[in-house]
Structure formats: structure tokens, C-alpha cells
Specification:
By secondary structure, the chain is of the alpha/beta class. It has a single domain, classed as Aldolase class I (TIM Barrel, Alpha-Beta Barrel), CATH 3.20.20.70. The chain is built from eleven helices and eight strands. Strands 1-2-3-4-5-6-7-8 form an eight-stranded parallel β-barrel, surrounded by six helices. Helix 1 runs parallel beside helix 2 (51-58), helix 1 packs parallel to helix 11 and helix 7 crosses helix 8 (184-202). Bound molecules: phosphoenolpyruvate.
Length: 256
């Protein structure tokens, strides 16, 4: 059993929800309800404008703040974009990269995911790298090939040392925001495939140390079963992270 070697991470993805004042309330409530968490890191990935307020509200608690995207250039004429150093100075420690909504609606490709990942790591951010198959790929029986390819392309040029700051979130696209959840067996199967690719790329020791989350309609009712699986080391939570009571129960399930 190598699960014990890895730190469980429960991360919320607020997406485009919560104004700064709402964020402060939600961070404080989440911090209060998860104050007992010891074996699990608690992260909230918030909209850019919420980061500073959320980080101030999280200070002295065990809640850490993340962003939901980052540009790969350090600065310059990239209207509407944000750099890694801006995120860090605002108080973000983590950043989600390659979320399926960015891939589906904003032209994100494995190439740009890779560029963002390298830039974020070089600047000192921890990366939550999202990947996963769409429904037609699962139905065609090519899930393993798809996630293996994404893992290799998204991590091209990322060193074994840098992998200490990478979390992989396996997110089957058909399960995100749909209420459909992968079964614990499906989640375990694909998380194990990802770890196998990490082992090919970096060796077993490094692969055994990487936190691999499951994401896709994880909630307070199904979290315990999913998180009990050997290769599922945490969760990336969308909808349920907006309700501190539900999110805290998921953190509780990771602690158990
Ligand atoms: C997500 O946005 O990464 C996600 C998993 O969303 P949900 O939990 O709402 O399916």
C-alpha cells in the first residue's frame, strides 16, 4: 500500500461563483468546519478577484487558496490574462490548469496546458493538473489511451523534482457538473493508469508520491467510497465546494 506515502488533498473549484465579500464568508465558514483536518490538505480555488480577500480570510487557518488558470508568459500585452507572479502576490498557492471547461469553451489544448504548467511551477505555484476523457471516448473504450496521452503531453519537460508540486486531477468530463459520478472502480482504474504513466515517465518512487485526485460530481454522499480506493488520493470538487457544510463533510471523508 503506497497510499500512506501521499498527502490527501481536497480542493474546491468555485468556478465563476462568489463575489469577494461572499468569498470571505465562505472561506471563514469552510475554515471553521475543517479546522480539525490533519491528514488532508484543504484548498479553495477561487475567481481571480477573490484571491486577495480569500487569502486574508484564510490566514492562520488550514485552508489554502488557489486560482483557476494562469497564463504562461511572465508579463506583457495579453489582455485579460494573469501571470503566475500576480497570483502568488495576491495570495494564491495553487492553480488549476487544464480544467475541461477551459478545454471545451476557451480553446485550451494539451500544448497550452503544458506551457501553463511549466510557467506555474517555475514561479513557485502548486499545480492541480486536470485531465480526463469525454463520454464518446469512454464509450469507444479508449479512456486509458486518452488519459495516458494527456498525462504525457501535459507534463512534457516537467522534471521529477517539479512533480513534488503537481497534483493530477482525473476528471471524466461526462461526470463534471452532471450529477453522474464515476464508480469507485472506474475512478480507481483510471487513477492507477495515470500513476502507471507517471511511473514510466519518472520512476516508481516519484509516481508513488504524486497525489492523484478524482473529480466529477463528488459529494458528501459518495466521497468516502471514492476516497477509499488505493490510487484515489483526494478530490477536486465543483458544485459541493460552494456549500461549506457539504465540502467539510468531504474533507471529513478524506480524514477517515
Ligand atoms: C470540477 O469543476 O472540477 C468538478 C468536478 O465539478 P463538479 O464537482 O460540480 O462535478
Amino acid at each position: 500500500m503506497n497510499k500512506q506515502k501521499r498527502r490527501a488533498v481536497i480542493a474546491g473549484n468555485w468556478k465563476m461563483n462568489m463575489t469577494p465579500s461572499q468569498a470571505v464568508e465562505a472561506v471563514k465558514e469552510t475554515a471553521k468546519l475543517t479546522a480539525g483536518a490533519k491528514s488532508c490538505d484543504v484548498v479553495l480555488c477561487v475567481p481571480f478577484v477573490d484571491i486577495a480577500a480569500a487569502a486574508a480570510a484564510a490566514e492562520g487557518t488550514n485552508v489554502k487558496i488557489g486560482a483557476q488558470n494562469v497564463h504562461f508568459e511572465a508579463k506583457g500585452a495579453f489582455t485579460g490574462e494573469i501571470s503566475a507572479s500576480m497570483l502568488l502576490e495576491a495570495g494564491a498557492e495553487y492553480v488549476i490548469i487544464g480544467h475541461s471547461e477551459r478545454r471545451a469553451y476557451f480553446g485550451e489544448t494539451d500544448e497550452t496546458v503544458n506551457l501553463r504548467t511549466k510557467a506555474a511551477l517555475a514561479a513557485g505555484l502548486k499545480v492541480i493538473l486536470c485531465l480526463g476523457e469525454v463520454l464518446s471516448e469512454r464509450q469507444s473504450g479508449i479512456t486509458s489511451e486518452i488519459v495516458s496521452m494527456q498525462t504525457k503531453l501535459d507534463l512534457a519537460g516537467v522534471s521529477a523534482e517539479d512533480m513534488k508540486n503537481v497534483i493530477i486531477a482525473y476528471e471524466p468530463v461526462w461526470a463534471i457538473g452532471t450529477g453522474l459520478t464515476a464508480t469507485p472502480e472506474q475512478a480507481e482504474e483510471v487513477c492507477a493508469v495515470i500513476r502507471g504513466v507517471l511511473s514510466e515517465l519518472y520512476g516508481k518512487e516519484t509516481a508513488d508520491g504524486v497525489t492523484v485526485q478524482y473529480g466529477g460530481s463528488m459529494n458528501d454522499a459518495n466521497a468516502a467510497e471514492l476516497l477509499a480506493k488505493e490510487d484515489v488520493d483526494g478530490g477536486l470538487i465543483g458544485g459541493a465546494s460552494l456549500v461549506p457544510e457539504k465540502f467539510a463533510k468531504i474533507v471529513g471523508a478524506a480524514e477517515a
